[in-house]
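Most newcomers find our protein records easier to grasp once they have seen one. There is nothing in a record beyond a sequence line and a structure line. Getting from the letters to the tokens is the skill we practise here. An example says more than a description, so a record of this kind follows:
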Amino acid sequence: MLLRPNSSIAVIGLNRPEAMNSFSKNLVQKLEDAIGAVEFDKNVRTVIIRSLAPGIFCAGADLKERAKMPVNEVGPFVARLRGMIGKLNTLPFPVIAALDGTAVGGGLELALSCDFRIAANTAKMGVVETRLAIIPGAGGTQKLPRLVGPAKAKELIFTAKVVDGLEAERIGLVNYSVPQNDNQDAAFQRSLNLAREILPNGPVAVKMAKLAIDKGIEVDLASGLAFEGAYYAQTIPTKDRIEGLTAFKERRKPVYTGE
């Protein structure tokens, strides 16, 4: 489900409570559609992914559906799921995962593909695939080590350990852990606040900064600095850059249009 708290923030809501928001073929299709809808929407500056079902973010694969799936369909489906989750990495604006409930397996991998993760202190998280004699297949073996380091990632994957929000913040898995509230949406509310902190800034600059960081982190420093220079150059001819300088001179808040 795609919601719009305002014109600049889009919320993708997972709403399959009867199956703990697990990834069925139908849910993957709906997520692909929602991501496609926001990707080219010029009004969107931040996306939040949350669950509309209390106590659960996403339980990963729909194991009941998977058990009935012919062997020759499993690989293509996992590849499709990996592609959908990976698409979040390339969206041209910040993406925030609001973890107000359990995120395990592919559900945590979905969150790992976001730029930020905010969790309720009661939320449970883990890459638990080795319990099923498989490995994380939607980016977990690559993205988790980049967040928490190889040794901690190996511990979490090899043991299938589940951690709460407080431990996740301590090891760097999430940006913030917040006390859960009576409405069971504390992480979502904190995510909205983070989105609102981003909105006043130049959208082209935020997009270029995201690209510079994401591209640069994968290469050596010299190449990363070259990426930075290239993306900085794309901000120079923008109307927003002129607006920022003018607003500073006139001692007022800038009004950015993304141009």
